[in-house]
Request: fold
Amino acid sequence: MKMEDMSLSGLDNTKLEALAHDVYSDLVEDACLGLCFEVHRAVKQGYFFLDETDQESMKDFEIVDQPGVDIFGQVYNQWKNKECVCPNCSRSIAASRFAPHLEKCLGMGRNSSRIANRRIASSNNTSKSESDQEDNDDINDNDWSYGSEKKAKKRKSEKNPNSPRRSKSLKHKNGELSSNVNPDLYKYNYSSGISYETLGPEDLRSILTTQCGVVSEHTKKMCTRSQRCPQHTDEQRRAVRVFLLGPSASMLPDSETMLENDGYDAPDGQLIMSRLQWDGSSDISPSDSASSKASTNNSESKRPKKKKNPSTLTLTTTGGGGERDKGQERERVVGSGSGSSSSQNALGLSSRKKRPKLPVPPGPSIYDDLN
Amino acid sequence: MSFKMQSSENMVYSPCFCGEGKRCAERPATNNSRETNISRESQMRAAINQKLIEMGERERLKELLRAKLIECGWRDQLKALCKEVIKEKGIENVTVEDLVAGVTPKGRALVPDSVKKELLQRIRAFLAQHST
Reply:
């Protein structure tokens, strides 16, 4: 029988609806039957009740809701109040503190050696002169002769002045430093610097021979780190010395500079460049600190906290204004007075922000004849 | 398939087979045509079913219904009912007929309305499309 024989007119809406309902009920019944067959098979095969546990086991694993106990019934801070006896010092230690105590008690483990070193270092600082820092960790890393020279660099290792060991051992000395300079010269103190205004020239000189001394723009205090502190350049140090002690007094020792002298832009550029060379350019000739080549390479680079870079930075005190030609020979200039123009930069450049290159002032150049 | 028969009373007043007993537009001319209509209707049903199967629509509808029932949790409800029947009758002795008889009527009732409506809609659409 073809569908064409059955026209829609033969069926009204209700009939159609009934038909649809019939089809629907058929489908639902099919679904029910399918489920029943499945269940029946599962029952007969024995896997219908597999996902259920018997009552006994259910009771065993019931959720526990008592105070002081977790849902499995375990006590979680069982060992908190227990105390153990240390085999080394025979003290009774709390269980959770036992392991760290043992570490320190036996002298093994990372922390204990660190603490011991710190103690040694601090005792060295307080009792001995700087040249006796035999126990310093990085004693072998430097080529410096930490002899008895007054101008010898302070042989503090170039550790982070912000490290906890510093503050921990020397906190109690903070308050004394600002006014009483001399006995505290060898004490590390990063949290309060030295204010140069209150110091006499002798004090200043002694400070400046041992410490970095660069005056921070923010706090107007002198940097108390060593002469090789990575935060400030030799140029800055030189400038500070010039500023504080007069133009002829800037004698920084150990100007081991290997600058490649390609001329320099300005005193500001000098300081920038010398700072930038600290960043790690390895071809710095032992001459004037200015090197425009370095500056062009690194002019916008920031200064990382590199600790030891003996091949870089010049510590000369030379410079004055004036330009240098590129390709100038390497020279080692020691201790001549820097131009007056550099003194004005001493304070300004002690901060570490980036500075654009400034134009060269055509000031009096000592080295005009050298060009 | 159920088939509502007009009562003899209604035959006088509304001789059509719409099943509602009221006067409707369609009136067979004679009593004889009612039987023809009945048979025509049953033929119609058969034809429609056949068409459903042939076009695969029935399978699709079946799958759709199955998916929807699982989604709405109907299947799990019915399984729980089955469990009860089984516990009643005992595992060893339960038969398919027991299960069917115990579960199917409730199963029909438990189908959610949304599922029912959607299915009916699809069936109607199919009928509308293919019944001419």
Notes: Strands of chain A lie at 83-85, 92-94, 194-195, 221-222. The mean pLDDT of chain A is 65. The CA atoms of residues 320 and 341 of chain A lie 7 Å apart.
